[in-house]
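User: Okay, second chain of the day. Same drill as before: sequence in, structure tokens out.
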Amino acid sequence: MPSARAIKTTMLKKGIPEDTINQFILPDPASKGAQWSEEYIAFIDQMDRLLTEEQRLSIMQEQGCCVSGKPAAEHAAFKLAHAGIPLEEKVRLYNESKIMYKLPCRLNPDGTLTVAWSHGEDGDYRCVCPIVHELPQPVEASPTFCGCCGGHARQNLQRALGVKLRLKKIVSSAASSKGKKSCEFTFEIVSA
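Assistant: Same drill. Structure tokens below.
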């Protein structure tokens, strides 16, 4: 999970004006558990009020946990092992692989890539984020909050498939639907 400070740093890199950034209230570093989680979700709610959807997606696609170490190495190794084959075949092989933190994905007729995964089934989906686990359930967080998982998916899929992706849409998530929907993200393939 990214820190609010990391998100603010990304805002600067993305050209968000400093007067806008200065309006954000960061979670108190001394806060713990549910209190910190509530403050973090409030920080994300500020993003919804102060930034456009395009800005939020651009910022959150740069976040994500499990994008280094063993998960990153496995995704990079997949790319090397499958270099030179068409993207459609890479996606099929990726979905069949045993990679840690694999992200089930599909190419769409419009040329986008959709990632969809779930923990649970049929209206009883659980969010994987530790921030959400600290809060009374079920949680209903902004879809922007779930952009961090979109960042996780984007970074690992870019590494595995050898493409550049842009988070186009947070379609649904367990945290933004009180567990009624699974997690789904759509990415534009910027370059293959």
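The chain has a mean pLDDT of 93.

User: Thanks, on to the next one.
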